[in-house]
Amino acid sequence: MKFTKGHGTGNDFVIVPDPDGALRLTPERVARLCDRRFGIGADGVLRVVRAAKDADGAAFAADAEWFMDYRNSDGTIAEMCGNGVRVFTRYLVSSGLATAGPEGLPVATRAGVVVAVLEGDEIRVRMRDPRVYAASTATVGPLTFPGVAVDCGNPHLVCGVHDGLELPSLDLTTAPGFDPALFTQGVNVEFTVPAEPLDGVDRHVAMRVYERGSGETLSCGSGALAVGAVALRDAGRTTGVVAVDVPGGRLMVTHDEDGHWWLGGPAVLVANGEVLD
Ligand SMILES: N[C@@H](CCC[C@H](N)C(=O)O)C(=O)O
């Protein structure tokens, strides 16, 4: 099995081309590929398959040729991966499987079709609109953090870190506690603090994330989108740009005048290889 390794702000993926949907990708196989000691190592797997050739992708085949079949490193399936879409697009274009014109390249995901636009080293994706919908809390050890639930196609809980606590001081080696009645399918939990004002953006925040199915990662695109949506809401703004600093770099979230939500940042391919088992 051929693979490519890539990342978006340190959120890393094993990319597996399977254009005609011939591959049997079991949860065990995904977990083995993502194992950083016994496999290649990654936060998740991106299976590159024609939408028409995949059971979940087929519904979108009229609008997008390619379907991003995303799996978390524990083998579970997720509806959306914002960094994944950006790296997936980089792979499609670099490998010659697709071209992206100025109007962008549609990519099908389990959360619907998104549109990716190439801008040099960066890829911007017009994402599904985030929906901020409920108050909740997360716990980290003895600490409780008030937060806001955000649906980005996949579930997020955005928590502000207050009371003089520093973001790096949080122990995210184990999963934060959350309300299972609200998040029946689990949740990705983002912790945020305001960052220094930055030229050219309306809000600047820093975030760490504990991802459902993958643990703490260096970045989460859909998480940054959720954080950006909450930051603009809290600022009383209907449009604007939010810079979201993650441990692996910086993502930009924009809500534009046309009502579209964009996620931008670098998307990098680092290696090609072949899996031997
Ligand atoms: N890292 C991703 C999100 C991947 C899916 C997530 N762990 C989930 O289970 O919902 C991103 O960049 O959005």
Automatic annotation (TrEMBL):
The gene is dapF. InterPro entries: DAP_epimerase_AS, DAP_epimerase_DapF. It is found in: Cytoplasm. PANTHER family: DIAMINOPIMELATE EPIMERASE, DIAMINOPIMELATE EPIMERASE, CHLOROPLASTIC. Its EC number is 5.1.1.7. This is Diaminopimelate epimerase. GO terms for molecular function: diaminopimelate epimerase activity. The active site is at residues 81, 220. The keyword Membrane does not apply. It comes from the Bacteria. It comes from Paractinoplanes rhizophilus. Coiled coil: none annotated.
